[in-house]
Structure formats: C-alpha cells, structure tokens
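hey
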C-alpha cells in the first residue's frame, strides 16, 4: 500500500490547490446562481407552468411574484462576497420552505423533494471551497 501511495503525485505548489478550490467554488456557485435566477425570473414573469405549480402546491397565484423578489434579494446577498454567508443562510431557509412544501403534497423524493437540498449543497459547497475561514469551522478540519 505504501508503495502505491509513494507514486501518487503530490502538489508542490500550495496555490495550485487554492486555485483549484477557488475555481471549483466559482463553478458550483455559478451553477446554483443561474438556476436560482431562472427560478426567480419565472416567478416574476408568472409563466403558465409556474401558475399551475403554485396552484398544485396550494399557494395563491399572487404569491409567485413576492417569492421571486425574496429569492432575488437572497441571491443578491449571496453573490456579494462580503454578505455571501448571510445570503447562503437565507437561501437555505428559502430552499427549506420548498422542501417542506414538497413533503406536504407528497411529491416524489429524489426528483422534487430533495432537489432544493442539491441546490443548497452547491451553495454551501461553493462557500466551503472558496473561503478558508469557513473550511476552518468544519468539524473534520480539526
């Protein structure tokens, strides 16, 4: 086993790892933000599938635009580096409401109910990769 591990190339430049982490974090964050922006835009425009989904989920049509505005505000906080952690907390709360709604109407688990968990994992994973202070708080880091 030691002979195998001895041949694994080790990074010689610590900034290479940091750059890889940063790029991974940017990629994850971009993916999450693009999806959330699309979701907010659909709520603001109130396209027919959104109206149908709101009715199926038990929400009045009038709540679509306010939800879109709240989501845009959370995204704005998330994309500003100084307020990214607050934005991530607020996005997590928003996505938690989506999970509760899908559980209430007994939607399929992996495709509907857990999808907000996947988005939240991208949001927090991006912060984890991009912020050494957040990484130092992780229990497995110690």
């Amino acid at each position: 086993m030691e002979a195998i591990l001895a041949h694994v190339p080790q990074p010689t430049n610590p900034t290479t790892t940091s750059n890889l982490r940063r790029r991974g974090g940017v990629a994850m964050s971009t993916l999450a933000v693009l999806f959330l922006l699309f979701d907010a835009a659909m709520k603001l425009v109130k396209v027919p599938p959104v109206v149908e989904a709101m009715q199926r989920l038990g929400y009045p049509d009038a709540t679509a635009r306010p939800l879109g505005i709240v989501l845009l505000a959370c995204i704005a906080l998330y994309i500003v580096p100084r307020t990214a952690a607050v934005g991530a907390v607020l996005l997590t709360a928003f996505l938690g409401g989506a999970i509760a709604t899908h559980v209430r109407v007994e939607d399929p688990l992996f495709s509907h109910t857990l999808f907000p968990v996947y988005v939240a994992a991208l949001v927090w994973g991006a912060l984890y990769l991009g912020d050494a202070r957040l990484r130092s708080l992780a229990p497995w880091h110690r």
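The two ends are 26 Å apart (CA to CA). Confidence is low (pLDDT under 50) at residues 3-16.
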